[in-house]
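Project standup — Tuesday

K.O.: blocked on the structure for the chain from last sprint. Re-posting the sequence here as requested.
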Amino acid sequence: MKNLIILALVIVSLNGLNAQTDETDDYVEFDDRKNVVHGVYIGLGGHYGRMDGEDTGFTTIKLAYVANRQLEVGFAFTGFYNDRPNTQPTLFEGDKVALLGGYGGFHLEPILFGERFISVSFPTLIGGGIVTYRGLDTLENDDVELEEKDFDNFFIVEPGINILYNFSRYTQLETGLRYRFTSDYNLSPFKGRGNLNGYSIMVGLKLGIFNMGRKKKIKDKF
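H.V.: unblocked you, prediction finished:
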């Protein structure tokens, strides 16, 4: 009888210990879900680089979701412009010719050291765009109607590296370097095929909320 009582006490103790462990595990697992930090922002940036052998200005706008300050997913759109002397007066009006267009697509950006004041990220844009050459006089003439043949489209992959400065929950400054890999285009005065490959440097400002839910420490229940 004594042995049976001892065995029963051991079984009850083991069950209690197991239930306690499960309860603690559930508590930790529940608290871990709260540790996910969400964010969303709108970003504005300017780039400088060379395109088709000329100094070029770029303007970028993007909208992205930030997961746990470790990954950005969203969309980005960039416009570009440069000009040069008109060496093809039979094709274009005016003294200068402008190369202009834009591209946009899916934005993906892994982030390292996202909780620190200075962090590093690796943005990549994958998408497409359009490009055209126009005489500056043509651009200023509202009566000129552009046709489909005046444009060409291209595919683009634009990887880069950023240094991020996390000033607050709501503001972040980014500086970085990009390189464009584009498919070929075919436009006058270049009857052969060309591309818009090249480097650019950029600076931008992100405004939003980068940690909607702040991380909480796991507290000991005992």
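K.O.: great, moving the ticket to review. The chain has two helices and eleven strands. The first strand starts at residue 38 and ends at 51.
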